[in-house]
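Reviewer 2 asked us to include a model.

Predict the structure of this chain.
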Amino acid sequence: MMNHWDEKFQDENYLYGEEANQFIKEQFCEDDTGTIGCFAEGEGRNAVYLARLGYDVTTYDYSNEGLKKTKRLAEKFNVTVNTHLQDLTVEHAVDKAQFDKVIMIFGHVKEESQQVLFNNLIQSVKPGGKIYFEVYAKAQLDYGTGGPKDIEMLYDLEAIRKYCELNEVTIIDLEEKEVVRHEGDKHNGKCRVIQGILEKI
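Predicted model (structure tokens):
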């Protein structure tokens, strides 16, 4: 049975483009190795970018259609990406301490599920590993340049701080800021995001 994301990703075009998110490009700009998990990765643009840099990449998403497009994009650029169909809002959805690094770009779920999502994200990393994320802040509703139209699916800075406090993690950087994003047809213009870099203890 198809879900909302399957229906969106059935489009032949890459709704958010084929280029990686700008925050990811800034954080990962040199060839490297190691394992990376990509949470709520959608159509695979960030995963393929990281695989092209030399990382061993595994993606998780709730949409089978998104995973198909991830594989197609990986083939286009002659890289391998491991894909897993997974509901990341279920406790212990992903094995713990398996990745050197993880990323999540615009992984939006209902507020009541955000803590579990962050638990899975953080706990999937080995001690000393890093977590990187960029999500839309609640103030993004006023911008109208992308992201969910439901405020319950947007993020609050202090809430994310609390999600982190309930895990064994050090906050390296966590801030809400205005940025410009041009990503496919769905993200265009100035927007309000929360960016974070964490280190697993």
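The beta strands are 35-39, 56-61, 81-85, 99-105, 125-136, 169-183, 187-200. Residues 64-76 form the longest helix (13 residues). We have added this to the supplementary material.
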